[in-house]
Amino acid sequence: MPDLTELHAEFRARPANGIVTMAGYDAAATPFIESKASAKGQHDDEFVDALFDQHELLFAEEQRSVLLVLQGLDCSGKNGTIKHVVIHMNPAGVRTASFTKPTEEEAEHHFLWRHREQLPNPGQLGVFDRSYYEDAIVPIALGTLAPDEVEERINEINEFEQELHESGTTIIKCMLHISYDEQRRRFLRRLRRDDKRWKFSEADLETRRRWDEFQAAYGDVIGATCTDHAPWIVIPADNKWYRNWAIAALLIETMRSMGNAYPQPDFDLDDLRNRLQPPN
User: Fold this and answer.
1) Nearest by Cα to 64 from 257, 267, 227
2) Out of 75, 94, 153, 158, which could bridge 186 as a Cys pair, Cβ 3.0 to 4.6 Å?
């Protein structure tokens, strides 16, 4: 498996003049791994245990936290990532939140309020299925906020992530980059299957109709919020197996780089062992 430096170098967003051009990233690329079979073999032989072990160290140390932000258009695999990657970690130390349209109560608050309510505690991995980025991307794509209002939200997001970083939260922001053609295939697959059709919404087609606007909005927001402490990672998502392999690798290497260790209580081990001996 490549190390974290290699992974970040390959996947990290590369803004030019504060903007990322999504068309410059190949949604079907599969760097570092030769085939689906190789990815599955490494997943089963190495990743499953490594994900659990590294997360267990984070959970046991209970000092810092990790926040995995999953952004992407419909059918890009946000839920699939949770199902196939996050599932391998101790559920007691995982906090998952899915952010759809705000409720009436949520809409009465600042847009970051509901996300603050779902942040991971020390020792936890937090997973955001969509996030506060929707509150900047969607208004840009649909033109529902003035440019200065969008800029204010972006500034608040950057300040929010700086705050999280300084409080001990490591942020992994993954843009699941899917192509126009692959999204069409997945939509059609959903419509064909009884067990998938419930996920389909006609509103998804309206978003698809505005594909170029959303691609541009993602590029603007990613470019404006890709920082050293919270960089954007663009994950090629046309191949589900590769998406899962890449995010699992990033999680493992990120948690390893944190240098977590099991806490060692100040026990008198000899005394405890003696007290646990059977009675004479």
Assistant:
1) 257
2) 75
